[in-house]
Amino acid sequence: MTKTQKLQQIADEIARCRTCKAQKSGKPVPGEGNPDADIVFLGEAPGRNEALSGRPFIGRSGKLLRRMITDAGLREAEVFITSPVKYLPDRGTPTKKDIKHGRAHLTKQLAVIEPKIIVLLGATAVYAMLEEVIPIMKKHGTIVEKDGRRYLITLHPAAILRFPKYAPLMRADFTLLKRLVFKKGL
Ligand code: URA
Question: What is the pLDDT, as a whole number, of residue 124?
């Protein structure tokens, strides 16, 4: 089976998963991008636009994220974009239980893609992968290794939409990411 087929199989599992759908709505949003991506961007949970279309990060936060990716000199087609939670939570914010459950699907996706680095966009992504509550404003720009995987902690683009003064912090983290990728220092 090719990586694309394996990812499709996981997307089909997500579409059938009753636990994923509990207290959530809309289409499943399994993620999209290059099955061979060196970089995976991990968000929080789909918003309304994403739940309507089934595509990740296509609303305001998504446009900002995609612009930051290209501004950093990376190509969208070379990365994979997803979230630990695969459906729009009824309350907007996912619960810890949602995040822990989503991790099961996400871990399978990461095992197929085998990225060199996973960019954790905000506290939910950090909690999903590092199982820790970490103050993002203190720890952004940090590279963490855990269980054989490498992570870069940064802000969620929604935080930049709320507090535009933080944009340079996130841009600096993406510059670091670009340096790592182009130096092949991964
Ligand atoms: N925010 C996320 O974390 N993921 C999306 O897909 C959209 C917005």
Answer: 97
Rounded to the nearest angstrom, the distance between the alpha carbon of 1 and the centre of ligand 1 is: 29
Which CATH number fits the domain 3-181, given the four candidates 3.40.50.300, 3.40.50.720, 3.40.470.10, 3.40.30.10?
3.40.470.10
- Beta 149-154 vs 32-33: how paired, if at all? unpaired
pTM beyond 0.85, yes or no: yes
Q: Pocket of ligand 1, candidates 24, 61, 66: which has the most ligand atoms within 8 Å of its Cβ, to mutate?
A: 61
Give me the torsion for CA of 44, 167, 179, 156, rounded to 10°: -10
- Give ligand 1 pocket residues (Cβ under 6 A): 29, 43-47, 50, 56-57, 59, 61-62, 83
| Closest ligand 1 atom, residue 49 Cα | 7
**pLDDT below 50 — which residues of the chain?**
none
Q: Round the CA-based radius of gyration of the chain to a whole number and report it.
A: 15
